[in-house]
Amino acid sequence: MNNVDIKKLSIISDGSFLLTAGTLDKYNTMTAGWGQLGVVWSVPVFTVYVRYNRYTFEFIENNEYFTAAFFDNEKYSKALSFCGSKSGRDYDKAKETGLTPIAVDGSVAFAEAKKIIVSKKIYTHDLVEEKFLDKEKFNAYYSETNPLHKVYVGEIISAYENS
Q1: How far apart are the first and last CA of the chain?
Q2: Is 2-161 assigned to CATH 2.30.110.10?
Q3: Cα separations (Å) of 128 from 6, 138, 142, 146?
Q4: Distance (Å, rounded) from C-alpha 119 to C-alpha 141?
């Protein structure tokens, strides 16, 4: 992996990514499709959304750092699908998908990723139904079986690319 100047990151339009938190000894990853790259409080940030019922939720809650790993989505579509549809409570996702977990700047990502963003949590908040101005969005994405998300804003501390 080559270190990337975080000020030169571009908007990532590759679709899904693996959101991971924890340590090599104990981590979890999940496929995510919602993330934002930008600048807040004069620092580069990556913002992610995690539902309370996801196993990854407890890892991102209990760790200071998280990673977003982007892949060649065509080549890794089965791995991304598995990591988005199966729980780390029941499966060893790395073993099941053949992905190789690696330690990266206080968190975990995967050697096969084409791009990795490492972020340190700096802000979080809960989405609440009453704040949705577009009720159709709320109704389309949330229900008793699909709970609201918690939002995590992470200051990007490093980024890497496979050449």
Answers
A1: 7
A2: yes
A3: 32, 10, 11, 13
A4: 26
Please give the torsion angle defined by the CA atoms of residues 13, 139, 77 and 154, in that order, rounded to the nearest 10 degrees: 50
pTM: 0.91
DSSP H/E element including 68: strand 65-70
Dihedral over alpha carbons 140, 54, 156, 138 (to 10 degrees): 20
Residue recorded with tokens 């940030």: 45
Mean pLDDT of the chain: 93
- Percent of the chain exceeding pLDDT 70 equals 94
pLDDT at residue 9 in the model: 65
So what's the pLDDT on residue 94? 96
Q: Which residues pair with 152 in a beta bridge?
A: 48, 124
Closest alpha carbon to 14 in 53, 64, 68:
68
